[in-house]
Amino acid sequence: MDDINIQKLFYHPICNSREIERIxxxxxxxxxxxxxxxxxxxxxxxxxxxxRNKALIDEKRWSLEKSFYSSHFKSFLRYLHEEPxxxxxxxxxxxxFSNEPNGLIFKTExxxxxxxxxxxxxxxxxxxxxxxxxxxxxxxxVRINALRIAIRVMLKTETLDFLMDPRGIVPNDIAKAIHAPxxxxxxxxxxxxxxxxxxxxxxxxxxxxxxxxxxxxPRDSDYKPMKVYNYSQKEEFEADIQAILLPQYNx
Length: 251
Prior knowledge:
Number of helices: 11
Helix content: 40-55%
Mean pLDDT: 89
Order of helices and strands: HHHHHHEEEHHHHEEH
Distance between the termini: 62 Å
Strand order of the largest sheet: 1-3-2
């Protein structure tokens, strides 16, 4: 067995055969994004275990690419006029798994790759549990622990294995209330990242290098740095405003 086929074996537990071929023969932005996701997962055993468990639920129909949500990006685009929508469609977009709970835009030879980390979902869920008013009572110790977890996610010191260890089970009515605002929150964040592109903030002068996944161990803190765009505080506010003004929502 040659070296390439040996390398492909590492991806079999989390990718289907077609995806593995795309990873080893990147031709476009979607392939690049798929490889970005797969490489991060394969190189971190805890993430590997999380996604292997997800794949085992329905291995015959499993797709790593389809396991990442993109509905918030598509929802934002649906409300744009044709010109800004066409511009946004020049990019590749989708979620990644990173413990940087934020949006990132990568500079690649296939154009900008606009992403949101799925760790941000965990930050939002635990923040909501800590801060929202619910019809059912939530004990203060539960709220405090939820807030502690949310802060640890934001500080990149929480182990992101929530799919295997959810940290507890909440009643259905509270779970629904926690999840209800998240699609709108993610849609706004997706719009914020698209706005950076529309406003011309993606300058090569502002490129920095940072890893996708910051290991908790200091030894691995500079793991595989990638080129991403950085912005001034003024540009961040401009993107916030356009994420609100660009979509043509109804009343």
